[in-house]
Amino acid sequence: MIGGEDQRGTRGLLEEPVEIAILDYGMGNRRSVEKALEHIGASVAITSDHGRLRAAAGLVVPGVGAFPRGMASLRELGLDELVRERVAHGTPVLGICLGMQLAFERSTEQGGTPGLGLIAGVVRELPRARAPFGARPEGHTQMAHSKHPEGHTLQGASRQAGGLGELKLPHIGWNEVTFTGSSPLTEGLPERCAFYHVHSFAPVPTAREDILGTSVYGAPFASVVGHESFYGVQFHPEKSSAAGLRLLANFARICARSAVTVAS
Question: Can you tell me the distance from the alpha carbon of 131 to that of 116, in angstroms, rounded to the nearest whole number?
């Protein structure tokens, strides 16, 4: 599903086709990511074949589920080393939700598991208690809505933030993201923009410069990250209507520029 907002103006956003491969490691939202990328004009393959993954201009690591299982699935297919290799080679890689978390050094989920180590930091469970109001970024509005801010309903987003007490996990719904740094991934998007989140854990990057965007659920958390050729989003752009599609188009353009640079 590509979200409930009017999609006119988002089809065929790319100026030229680019081949993007989605890692097929048995975790999550591969088909919905494929449809969103095709919608903007990318050529897409869902594959675990190392040759096809190396030939692509960019990679997407999707994912829904537990961190330990995700890492085990990557290792079983040899995709952990392949992702590290591609990032070292400069190939753009986008991690979505769990795919973003796997890029970090480790997660505390289910007792702790090492990650890919592409970005310094740890993935931790979101706080169940609300932080004091002053701890939120200035001007940031906390949302955990089953409806898009423009009023469009998204199926499956039934859980919302509770009252003044304990917050419900997982965090499910539309939430505002504030972009904190300049990046080609967020080019053309407003400084504050709502995206669709479904998660109980979030990364805590060691370096502030790796954080490209933050959101708030009880307390601030990193919702967009970038380090070298790896980009990650905690939300689901493929379910985030026009803003999500524009972010995916930005990533596809990064892939196209990278492919031209390598070819030259």
Answer: 30
For the stretch 142-191, pLDDT in tens is 555 555 555 443 333 333 444 456 789 999 999 999 999 889 999 999 99
Q: Give one word for 32, left, alpha or beta, with left for phi > 0 and alpha for psi -120 to 50.
A: alpha
97 is catalytic: yes
Higher pLDDT, 208 or 6: 208
Which residues lie closer than 8 Å to 252 by C-beta, 6 or more apart? Answer: 14, 18, 20, 37, 40, 41, 42, 58
SS3 annotation, 204-257: EECCHHHEEEEEEECEEEEEEEEECCEEEECCCHHHCHHHHHHHHHHHHHHHHH
**C-beta separation of 212 from 254 below 8 A:** no
- The architecture of the domain spanning 19-263 is 3-Layer(aba) Sandwich (3.40)
Using 50, 70 and 90 to split pLDDT, how confident is the model at 14?
confident
- Asked if 254 contacts 92 with a C-beta cutoff of 8 angstroms, the reply is yes
226 has which bridge partners? Answer: 231
pTM: 0.85
Q: Identify whether 187 is a catalytic site residue.
A: no
The pLDDT score that the predictor gives to residue 50 is: 98
Catalytic residue among 5, 34, 39, 97: 97
Lowest-confidence region among 43-52, 64-73, 78-87, 139-148: 139-148
Please state whether beta strands 58-61 and 43-47 pair in parallel, antiparallel, or not at all (unpaired). unpaired
Element (H, E) at 52: helix 50-55
Residue 236 a catalytic site member = yes
Per annotation, catalytic residue among 109, 148, 238, 255:
238
